[in-house]
Amino acid sequence: MCRMPHGGQCFGNSIVTDATDDASKALREVNADEILDALETVSHEVDANWGSESIASLFRDPEVEKLMQKGNTGLDKLETDSAMARRYAQMSFFGKMQVWLQSHKYEIVIAAVLCINVLWMAFELQLSGSDTGYQIGVISAPPVPAESWSTWGRIIEVGDLIFTTFFVTDVVVRIVVLQRSFWKVPLNYIDVAVSAASLFEVTVYHGTTLAVNPILFRLVRIGKLARAIRFVTMTSMLASLQLLVKCLASSSNMLFWSFCLLTFVQCVAGLIVSTLCRDFFEDDSYDVSLREAVFRYYGTFTRTFLTMFEILFANWGPACRVLVENFSEWFSIFFLFYRCVLGFAVLNVVNAVFVQQTMKTAGSDEELAFKQKEKDAQMYTRKVKRLFQTIDDSGDGTLNLEEFSKLVQSPKLKFWMSQLELEYHDLLSLFEFLDNGDGEITLMEFIEGAARLRGGAKALDIWRIETKLEVLFEEVLKALHTTSGKVMPLSVQDACLIYRHMVPVSRIERCSGLWGRCKRRVLAEMADVGWRLKNLNQLTMERINCK
Predict the structure, then answer these.
(1) Per-chain mean pLDDT for the chain
(2) Cβ(302)–Cβ(348) under 8 Å?
């Protein structure tokens, strides 16, 4: 029984049944010598009447062609740089402003100004803090001479006013130009709030009639730092920051419960230590200085709670030594057990869960995966282009067969090809596949061919080649024993032999790395064989009838 995957067994049974019915008819068997003689006679006629383009047109799948046309239509809709430039030139001033305010260049400008603003605020804080330290005696020398302090104060005021004006203008312009699109971004509300706070600060600072609490004034100035959150919106430039923010957001629930676990354990451990130290604080037999030293770490709940976090995350030696040296050495066992269990086991488990959650978020994010796919494609294209330039000795931008033969002669180039998943031992076949028929391979042909050859055959490709081979097999059988209303008898053994020869062709496709070349050649050769047999059958029947 002839077998074939995907329903091939039923197809083979039907063919054998048809061939048996045809053989049962009282018709004259065709001699093999007559077939060979007819094949030699009509070989040139078939080549003249049927070109490769005509044969290929017979095996075009209309449904697949429609799908390919839809895909090409989607690709055609992508505008090139020149088309976008022409479209931008035809826009009005308002439209150009909308494009500019949402472009990467504008984001770069805002990012640069934000960085300068943060540095300016750091300089202002350094200057004012140094002056305060000089006044209380911590710093011996003033940061600037006393006679020039008023000048520096005016410079700081002018700088703050310039930054405030710039960012307020930025928000107002974006609200006017972008209109509804501006309010669809949640982080833009932060820009509006920060700009309003900056205006309030300027009004309070320069207004003499308003009495405002200094604490509120300090909070307003601190609120200006929230403007730096706008960096998060610049996803095109800060992809890594975007990944970190998404990972933190996705792990917020786990982060909360991890903090709860650590806080609970720290609280219980602190209560135990503070309770054990209570008698030590009240015992007058101990020196007061020793009790004061221990009290600084474990005297109250808040002190003990802070000390337990210090033991877990910071330098735990002093907090442990103050009890071991001044109270009891048995506390060393408690602290060793505490550090091993909580500081090693629990923290490592929490870190591992965070890493797993981060990798899971990074792998499931479609936008990040798309950007990574683009980067991989660009990197692969650069490597293929570099390989092409290395092979091209003449520097004319094309490769002939002589230059292409360097791939076999150079072990380094062969290794390079294997790294690009283009390793292949049949050099001539590889050259024919990459070439469009003119005997030379251009850079675009080399890149496109390398992209098609990369990797193995997909399931869709295998299914298409199997389907076409099944249809081709049926057409060949019809050409063998059905011509112009007359039937040529075909024995069961011949049908099974042909069927067994046709079926493995589709299985070879599963093992072929160059699936595109295999598919093209198999279809072309099988089409050529089918139409040669059809014309051969017609001529043979005519000669037999004449005899």
Answers:
(1) 70
(2) no
